[in-house]
């Protein structure tokens, strides 16, 4: 393996295109098998089933892998290969994942295909114009296959991507984007790249010249923009759907060992950074990296070596090529995870150029370039690269199609290819399988119908619908989750998705998390069972919150997470009611109306389903809320007419109705009496109306009283003093409060000859005003102002 | 169902098809309308339904001749609807009828003149009635009633067709049908409790230049005013409600007593709110006795009577949506009570009549078996003065209402109580 490393140059761009090449190969293969009709739509062939399945396979493999590495502390290649073989069938040692501490391979594979596809328009005509394809029409399949093998590596990489953590994204982001921009970096890092540098300009130049061949000026100019740009674009576009990946990464066993020194991790990151958009390379790099670390461990220099100054190594392309093949299915499946954003870019070009003939000729063309030069010439390799990349979009799809229908058989085929020598054989088997499928009349029909869609330039949007039916009743959790992810993804993009067709029961999560405490995080993807608490744990969590001494912010957060877990598990019983009631009460206590309303509306649904709870109490709250805060006459009438005779006898409801009457008639005396005698938390809802009521009362009094009104009376009437006890002190504080309030609202106060403070009614009638609430905030809801909120709740 | 021979069934179906074809060919809107009115339970349609249930393959008859088959898309689902209706399967009857209606609307769109408006009216009516019945059936089966909502969106589409027909030809002949559809929509929205949906239709009726309100049939205008008046009652915008409901009342055909009663049901509370009391005769003529005691309470200043009257008919008032309006009459009752105290005091001692002691009011309320303490009464008095139902001021120190010497109890005279 080490020998291989030293042998190779750095055909980075070439690697980028390898997936393409491979796809082209497969495509070419079809044509040679007389399948000219095998249009891009076959592509659509996204295997809904196989995607989750393969992913899951990989996923399963990882935990074991990690556990083993943890035990041995040194990821031995042999050992690992054994592990992976047992799990996955037959993967080459070289294709093994990197040692755990390595940053998981960057996400490049996911966007690279898009890059290539984005270039599709520009490149294709070029290929067609070259007209070289005729020579290659009858090119034997084996010659393709050698090339085809190469791209399979990225496929494997894709599976690794699923484990990519967010940090890696970050890392990627900071890394130079685009191939060309990357070269200088590489150069600085390693001497080995010297050889690659000269090729860069030539490659570019040649590419451009090639691109100028096309007769279509529009496309040519398009191409002239260069790869770097398109890559950047695609990268940017890719950043949007990232959450999906992140969510995937959540599920992975997160026992990523951290025992390696930080400097080594940095080293590894640097090593991978170079290959961030080259799957094959990175896989090779991983393997190599593993060797280095194993070695370092063996001779005890793991912690002593200065990794920061350790030179980076080069990855030979041959190595990655040989490796690449094995994991091909994973890549296919992964492609469905590709962000859809780029599809838009694609749409037009694809529709413009989806004639089969063009594809065919183009494919051959790219291959010719590739095969002719591959042996020794890096530059030609590179040169052919971009071209090969272009048809990848269309060519890639047929493979996906096969996966759907041929699911397991294909994986087996791929797994058989445990060595380079097996490659041809397995490929043949692979394709013959595909052919058999293609011959199937049903299959043909499906392809036809899909090709029609493709003609419309829809990209793979419609295709997305294809995985839906297959998602129904997935066998296990992970496929289920994966399919849920896909669903959620496809919802975003295709509005015409038929929601009714989804088997929600199959998608319902059963939680396994045993943690009682959990922070609320708004889900951006399908929930992960390992982070969802089952019902019994939720009950404990609710109790914990109820008995907690912490502030509302904490409780709200906890309750929201409980609510989320309940919702995703579709629990609808007394626990649900209890949780919502608890939250509603807490929200009321601090005046968090928004949260309260959410709970109240849920509660009304739950009660109407016949689940028991504090129905009367919340009926009263509902009434109060409508009366005091929405002031919608129609709603009020409906709420009132829905009250049962028993409800009208309930104290809380009676109180609420009395409050309503007081508010509609403007009877402030009754209102503040009711305020003091409120049952349950009715006071809390009334609290929010107190200011308004006091102001109305003050206006009313200043207009109807002459000449003065004693402040003490106002304080008593408007609920300032706690009149419950006749304690003078309380009385006084209420009086002071009232004074402050009146002053704040512009009342004119005088002291009469007995020294008692009086409201000068006549003077006040023209000066009263509603002051801007001191805690007013721009968004209009002061309860959202964190500082204030904290002050009130702690 | 008496036994029906195959031949007789055949005859009845062909007869209907002939009538249908003739009605369209002669552009006879009235005849066509009659042929669509499923829920009218007319003998001819009922016998046709029986015939259809005997002669199962009506579609063959329709396809048989070119004369019928051109209306196949309308008639075939209509037959199915009629069959289902006859068999009591209202959900399917509605579904099929909506299908037939959709096909009819497509045809209607292409007809230049508005000859078929009568038929369209019947369809708009039938679709609502069938949807209501279908919903009742759904609800009784424990399913969620959703057909009326569907009928709402269908009628919105019809409204669009009628309004849209005008854009092309300036003032199209079909636009006059828009108000009828609007009224059916109102009925649906009020039934569903989604009255806020009325707003968009109202806006297009009142602002779109193609509509001249006076042009619409008087029948539709009355219905429209009735519903918009009710909306104003909900908003407690009494002057507007008064104006709309009064229009409906004055233009409503006198023979339609039920309609007049419905209008009065809302108009009376509105009039009471602006201080205009109805004659007892009116309430009795239109069987609106639930308002009797309320009017009486206003006349006598009898708070107890008002409260008991409200209590008695609470459910009814809540459902019709006038409860909150009637409840607000309480202030007027207080005003009346105070006025009576003032008049009595004036008879006793004119010089001190304008000073009413709070205690006196509390005592008067006690006689009415209403327990209120001084603070509460003081508050009521303050509100009365504030709302300009009473002129004067309240002296807190001496707990005395000092009334203005001129017109201490101003009449509302058609103006609402100040808010």
TrEMBL record, chain A:
Residues of the PCI domain: 592-773
PANTHER family for the chain: 80 KDA MCM3-ASSOCIATED PROTEIN (PTHR12436), LEUKOCYTE RECEPTOR CLUSTER MEMBER 8 (PTHR12436:SF4)
Compositional bias segments (type: Polar residues): 378-395
Biased composition (Basic and acidic residues): 441-463
A cellular component annotation (GO) from this entry: nucleus
Chain residue ranges for the region called Disordered: 79-144, 378-464
Protein name, UniProt field: PCI domain-containing protein
Automatic annotation (TrEMBL), chain B:
PANTHER family assigned to the protein according to its UniProt record, in alphabetical order: PCI DOMAIN-CONTAINING PROTEIN 2, UNCHARACTERIZED PROTEASOME COMPONENT REGION PCI-CONTAINING
Protein name stated in the entry: PCI domain-containing protein
Residue intervals of the PCI domain: 222-408
GO molecular function, one term: double-stranded DNA binding
Gene Ontology CC, one term: transcription export complex 2
PROSITE patterns: PCI
One example of a Gene Ontology biological process annotation: post-transcriptional tethering of RNA polymerase II gene DNA at nuclear periphery
């Amino acid at each position: 393996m080490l020998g291989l490393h030293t042998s190779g140059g750095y055909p980075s761009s070439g690697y980028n295109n390898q997936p393409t090449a491979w796809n082209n190969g497969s495509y070419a293969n079809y044509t040679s098998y007389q399948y000219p009709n095998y249009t891009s739509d076959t592509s659509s062939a996204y295997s809904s089933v196989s995607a989750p399945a393969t992913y899951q396979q990989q996923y399963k493999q990882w935990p074991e892998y990690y556990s083993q590495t943890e035990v041995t502390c040194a990821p031995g290649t042999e050992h690992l290969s054994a592990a992976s073989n047992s799990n996955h069938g037959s993967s080459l040692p070289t294709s093994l994942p990197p040692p755990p501490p390595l940053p998981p391979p960057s996400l490049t594979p996911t966007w690279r295909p898009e890059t290539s596809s984005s270039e599709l328009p520009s490149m294709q005509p070029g290929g067609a114009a070259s007209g070289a394809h005729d020579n290659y029409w009858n090119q034997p399949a084996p010659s393709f296959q050698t090339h085809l093998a190469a791209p399979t590596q990225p496929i494997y990489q894709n599976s690794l991507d699923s484990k990519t953590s967010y940090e890696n994204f970050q890392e990627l982001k900071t890394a130079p984007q685009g191939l060309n921009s990357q070269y200088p970096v590489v150069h600085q890092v390693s001497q080995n790249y010297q050889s690659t540098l000269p090729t860069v300009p030539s490659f570019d130049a040649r590419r451009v010249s090639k691109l100028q061949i096309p007769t279509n000026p529009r496309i040519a100019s398009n191409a002239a923009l260069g790869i770097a740009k398109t890559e950047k674009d695609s990268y940017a576009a890719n950043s949007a759907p990232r959450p999906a990946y992140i969510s995937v990464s959540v599920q992975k066993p997160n026992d990523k060992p951290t025992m390696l020194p930080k400097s080594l991790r940095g080293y590894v990151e640097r090593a991978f950074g170079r290959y961030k958009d080259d799957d094959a390379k990175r896989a090779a790099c991983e393997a190599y990296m593993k060797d280095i670390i194993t070695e370092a461990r063996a001779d005890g220099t793991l912690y002593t070596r200065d990794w920061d100054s350790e030179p980076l190594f080069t990855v030979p392309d041959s190595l990655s090529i040989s490796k690449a093949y094995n994991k091909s299915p994973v890549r296919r499946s992964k492609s469905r995870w590709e962000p859809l954003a780029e599809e838009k870019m694609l749409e037009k070009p694809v529709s413009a150029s989806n004639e089969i003939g063009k594809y065919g000729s183009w494919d051959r063309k790219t291959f010719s370039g590739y095969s002719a030069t591959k042996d020794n010439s890096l530059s030609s390799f590179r040169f052919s690269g971009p071209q090969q990349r272009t048809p990848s979009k269309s060519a890639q799809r047929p493979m996906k199609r096969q996966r759907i229908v041929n699911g397991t058989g294909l994986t087996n085929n791929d797994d058989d290819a445990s060595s380079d020598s097996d490659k041809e054989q397995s490929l043949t088997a692979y394709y013959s399988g595909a052919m058999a499928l293609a011959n199937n009349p049903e299959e043909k029909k499906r392809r036809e119908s899909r090709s029609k869609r493709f003609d419309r330039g829809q990209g793979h949007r419609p295709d997305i619908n294809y995985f839906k039916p297959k998602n129904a009743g997935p066998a296990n959790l992970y496929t289920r989750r994966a399919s849920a992810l896909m669903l959620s993804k496809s919802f975003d993009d295709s509005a015409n998705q038929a929601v009714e067709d989804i088997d929600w029961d199959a998608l319902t999560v059963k939680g396994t998390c045993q943690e009682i405490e959990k922070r609320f995080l708004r889900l951006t993807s399908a929930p992960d069972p390992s982070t969802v608490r089952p019902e019994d744990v939720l009950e404990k969590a609710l109790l914990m919150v109820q008995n907690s001494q912490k502030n509302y912010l904490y409780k709200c957060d906890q309750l929201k997470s409980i609510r989320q877990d309940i919702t995703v598990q579709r629990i609808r019983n007394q626990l649900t009611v209890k949780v919502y009631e608890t939250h509603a009460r807490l929200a009321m206590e601090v005046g968090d109306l928004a949260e309260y309303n959410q709970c109240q509306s849920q509660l009304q649904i739950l009660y109407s389903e016949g689940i028991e709870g504090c129905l009367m109490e919340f009926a009263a709250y509902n009434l109060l809320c409508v009366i005091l805060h929405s002031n919608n006459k129609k709603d009020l009438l409906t709420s009132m007419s829905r009250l049962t005779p028993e409800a009208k006898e309930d104290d809380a409801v009676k109180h609420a109705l009395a409050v309503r009457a007081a508010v509609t008639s403007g009877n402030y005396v009754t209102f503040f009496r009711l305020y003091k005698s409120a049952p349950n938390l009715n006071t809390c809802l009334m609290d929010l109306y107190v200011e308004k009521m006091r102001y109305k009362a003050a206006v009313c009094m200043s207009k109807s009283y002459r000449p003065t009104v004693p402040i003490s009376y106002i304080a008593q009437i408007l609920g300032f003093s706690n009149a419950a006890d006749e304690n003078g002190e309380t009385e006084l504080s209420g009086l002071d409060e009232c004074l402050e309030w009146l002053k704040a609202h512009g009342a004119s106060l005088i002291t009469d000859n007995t020294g008692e403070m009086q409201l000068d009614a006549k003077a006040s009638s023209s000066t009263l005003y509603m002051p801007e609430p001191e805690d007013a905030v721009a968004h209009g809801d002061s309860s959202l102002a964190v500082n204030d909120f904290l002050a009130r709740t702690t | 169902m008496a036994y029906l021979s195959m031949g007789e069934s055949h005859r009845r179906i062909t007869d209907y098809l002939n009538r249908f074809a003739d009605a369209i060919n002669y552009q006879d809107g009235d005849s066509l309308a009659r042929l669509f009115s499923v829920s009218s339970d007319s003998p001819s349609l009922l016998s046709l339904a029986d015939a259809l249930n005997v002669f199962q393959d009506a579609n063959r008859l329709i396809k048989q001749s070119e004369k019928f088959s051109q209306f196949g898309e309308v008639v075939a689902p209509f037959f199915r609807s009629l069959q289902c209706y006859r068999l009591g399967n209202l959900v399917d009857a509605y579904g099929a009828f909506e299908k037939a209606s959709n096909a009819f609307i497509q045809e209607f769109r292409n007809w230049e003149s508005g000859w078929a408006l009568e038929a369209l009216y019947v369809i708009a009516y039938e679709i609502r009635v069938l949807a209501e019945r279908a919903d009742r059936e759904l609800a009784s089966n424990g399913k969620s009633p959703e057909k009326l909502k569907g009928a709402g969106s269908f009628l919105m589409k019809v409204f669009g067709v009628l309004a849209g027909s005008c854009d092309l030809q300036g003032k199209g002949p079909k636009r006059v049908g828009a108000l009828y559809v609007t009224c059916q929509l109102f009925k649906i929205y009020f039934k569903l409790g989604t009255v806020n949906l009325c707003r968009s239709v109202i806006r297009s009726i009142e602002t779109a230049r193609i509509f001249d309100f006076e042009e619409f049939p008087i029948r539709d205008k009355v219905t429209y005013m009735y519903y918009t008046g009710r909306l104003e009652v909900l908003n407690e915008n009494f002057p507007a409600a008064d104006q709309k409901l009064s229009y409906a009342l004055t233009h409503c055909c006198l023979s339609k007593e039920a309609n007049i009663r419905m209008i009065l049901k809302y108009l009376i509370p509105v009039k009471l709110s602006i201080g205009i009391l109805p004659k007892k005769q009116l309430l009795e003529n239109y069987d609106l006795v639930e308002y009797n005691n309320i009017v009486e309470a206003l006349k006598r200043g009898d708070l107890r009577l008002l409260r008991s009257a409200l209590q008695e008919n609470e459910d009814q008032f809540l459902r019709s949506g006038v409860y909150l309006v009637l409840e607000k009459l309480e202030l007027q009752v207080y005003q009346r009570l105070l006025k009576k105290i003032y008049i009595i005091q004036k008879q006793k001692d004119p010089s001190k009549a304008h000073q009413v002691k709070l205690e006196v009011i509390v005592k008067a309320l006690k006689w009415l078996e209403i327990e209120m303490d001084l603070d509460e009464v003081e508050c009521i008095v303050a509100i009365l003065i504030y709302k300009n139902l009473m002129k004067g001021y309240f002296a807190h120190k001496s707990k005395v209402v000092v009334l203005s010497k001129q017109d201490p109890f101003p009449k509302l005279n058609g103006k609402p109580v100040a808010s």
